[in-house]
Specification:
2 strands; two-stranded antiparallel ribbon; mainly alpha
Length: 142
């Protein structure tokens, strides 16, 4: 019994990943890809002992969240990031907003936490001004 306990203490403990960490690693790999890539390419870039099936699960979850796209390539798929990092951050912000019942309160709370420079930039964007790196979509009719 003592031997088993001693061996268990000597084995290195596997670190549990934080929620969303694998998704972030997959997106980082896809951002660095030269173009659409297969899951094995992503698995190789992430490294470690991550199983191919785990990579496929993560890619499928990201597809459901519209953060990656895929295209058929023979019997498999090639995967790409759906947007650049700013676009992905905007998508995450929009999903948070969509999940709240009082959108006005959430937006008002968010705006009160902005720095003066960010507030000026937002006012410019909303007033029809354009930030050099931002292209706002046309408003949708209700």
């Amino acid at each position: 019994m003592e031997r088993c306990e001693r061996e268990a203490r000597q084995r290195p403990r596997l670190r549990r990943r934080a929620q969303g960490e694998l998704e972030a690693q997959v997106l980082t790999a896809l951002h660095g890809a030269p173009g659409p890539v297969n899951a094995a390419w992503v698995q190789e870039r992430i490294g470690g002992d991550l199983a191919y099936t785990t990579v496929m699960t993560i890619l499928t979850r990201l597809l459901a969240k519209s953060t990656v796209t895929r295209e058929r390539a023979g019997r498999s798929f090639l995967w790409s990031s759906a947007a650049d990092e700013a676009g992905l951050a905007a998508l995450r912000m929009r999903k948070v907003l969509d999940g709240e019942s009082d959108r006005g309160a959430v937006l008002a709370s968010f705006v009160t936490t902005l720095s003066p420079d960010d507030e000026r930039m937002l006012r410019g964007l909303l007033g029809g001004g354009r930030h050099p790196q931002v292209a706002l979509p046309a408003p949708q009719e209700a």
